[in-house]
């Protein structure tokens, strides 16, 4: 029976999914998803910059049908959206498996973080269009073992994220995250968990509690390390060189996306190392604060390497119109981070499907307004770009700004 006072589980915007996530998740878990770094300039700009772009719609003569399908990294997707890898724990008991199922049901690809809570074999079983994300942790031998495991699991490709700079501290405060959920941690977290009974009930219904380990960072035959154990190893690993990027491309041999490129010179270097797909990304504003919104950096990068490299974008996507704006400015597809996490927190797998449906209908209606029959027809002149909007980072002729 449908109780009249029960909230409709369907939500109409990503903003509403975020509100529900805030009401549903314990304070620390919600804060871990908000993330961001330092002043929060970048995390805010990622979203705000999309609002600065406008559209120039037609009034009559729109095509009756619209085609959203694209091919990215050798995968056919029902729309130009992929799930971005996010290493967060404790959002939902089914976690990345629920996200992967939702993505499979909606015909989009899944990015699975090295710091995810579910083993990649389970996620690939839920969605064969899974890309495993690797960080530069432990050096070449350890990374080769992780790549080998991903290959055996049958992933569609890898996402290499190299932009992490270990920023610490947020002006609005960081949540306390325990190393493991022992008795002491449970006592400390009890007040905020008991204030969120629906979240707790969901975990109990699944007969488990968050265990805060990272199974995809396990060495063969070893138990999964804790998040902090793996993070400590990462901090001690010397940062990668461009030679290491070339080594990654040659070792992996299959589809590979380099995530975190914002500069034109880096995009060209990546191309010269054999990288054939990049995501213009600033790690969702969780990294070097003061990096401009990715949508500002995108046009210069796409102009520089777009003919040789598949250029994607992530950061700040909250609606279908944002996807279209990114496509107009040179992206082939986008990845979504928080939007999927808000959906997962709000309503599990169905919540992620809800978010993907909102993006799809938003892309559809924007295409209709713009009079375009396909995402492939979108052009730069379909969006209004205010003067001074773009940032050509690392371009020869434009040292900054302009
Ligand atoms: C809580 C959180 C955890 C993340 N963890 C990872 C990660 O493990 N690996 C990675 O490549 N990117 C990670 N990211 C970055 C996302 O993949 C993506 O770049 C970013 O979320 C895009 O911005 P958006 O959240 O505005 O869509 C994380 C982002 C968030 C918000």
Automatic annotation (TrEMBL):
<keyword id="KW-0560">Oxidoreductase</keyword>
<dbReference type="Pfam" id="PF01070">
    <property type="entry name" value="FMN_dh"/>
</dbReference>
<dbReference type="InterPro" id="IPR023989">
    <property type="entry name" value="MftD"/>
</dbReference>
<dbReference type="GO" id="GO:0016491">
    <property type="term" value="F:oxidoreductase activity"/>
</dbReference>
<comment type="similarity">
    <text>Belongs to the FMN-dependent alpha-hydroxy acid dehydrogenase family.</text>
</comment>
<keyword id="KW-0288">FMN</keyword>
<dbReference type="InterPro" id="IPR013785">
    <property type="entry name" value="Aldolase_TIM"/>
</dbReference>
<dbReference type="InterPro" id="IPR037396">
    <property type="entry name" value="FMN_HAD"/>
</dbReference>
<keyword id="KW-0285">Flavoprotein</keyword>
<feature type="domain" description="FMN hydroxy acid dehydrogenase">
    <location>
        <begin position="6"/>
        <end position="388"/>
    </location>
</feature>
<dbReference type="InterPro" id="IPR012133">
    <property type="entry name" value="Alpha-hydoxy_acid_DH_FMN"/>
</dbReference>
<dbReference type="InterPro" id="IPR000262">
    <property type="entry name" value="FMN-dep_DH"/>
</dbReference>
<protein>
    <submittedName>
        <fullName>Pre-mycofactocin synthase MftD</fullName>
        <ecNumber>1.4.3.26</ecNumber>
    </submittedName>
</protein>
